[in-house]
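Researcher: Let's continue the batch. This sequence belongs to Probable nicotinate-nucleotide pyrophosphorylase [carboxylating], and it's 283 residues. Same format as the previous ones, please.
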Amino acid sequence: MTLPLYPIQYETLIRTALAEDLGMAGDLTTDACVPHDATAKALFNARHEGVCAGLDAALYAFTLLDPTLSITRHVKDGDRIAPGTTLATVEGLARPILSGERTALNLLGRLCGIASETRRLADRIVGTGAQIVCTRKTTPGLRALEKYAVRVGGGGNHRFALDDAVLIKDNHLVAAGGLRAAVERARMRAGHMVKIEVEVDDLDQLAELIDLKVDAVLLDNMDPATLRRAVEMVAGRMVTEASGGVTPETIRAIAETGVTLISLGWLTHSVKNFDIGLDFAVE
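Model: Same format as before. Here are the structure tokens for Probable nicotinate-nucleotide pyrophosphorylase [carboxylating]:
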């Protein structure tokens, strides 16, 4: 079970998004066309199959615009949803519902899309022991929510930012003067609670790294045969992470090599938006 986020974790984001959309003059269309006392019942309806994620964060847009609106959730984050499923109902004054519609749908469609694709990929590697994880390739400002959506979909999270783990990549190695120098400097600087991971491009680099006893190795752009050999060389001495060239078509073969983690940047930067409509009920 994925624990929900606290409103304090997304309130600033939602306020910023609403302020961006309302601008300096407010919702000109709604204010001009809709009487101030008009009421409405709006339904969030899924257009296709997937996984719900980010519902509370999306609905918070309406709470900020009008705390008197009545909000009913019909599903919860993590639920699989079929086409036509009503995720939530919002009732009350029509103006704030219309003004908050786009902010809520933008966020909900984004997060449901990430969770749905994560679930699809996770289903493909069931039984292998590998886990899907996301990266820092997130939409600026949305990282906490996008990584949450990955968890909701059955995946895990890589580091959240530059300050919660050490990940030494190829450019770091060049700038530091080599693998051993980079690892030794990182070990002196990082606290005892900080994990150290190093990216390697080939098995020769991996052989050198094994002697340095780091926590994890990122096996970059290796084919399944090479990944399998890398896992054999590591022999459980550190976490193995496969990254690069991972697609829905290749992910099962990669998982079957025995790697611990499979990281996918496109899971949070290129996933298709989940289609959700906000439909006013006609009475």
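Researcher: Any comment?
Model: The mean pLDDT is 96.
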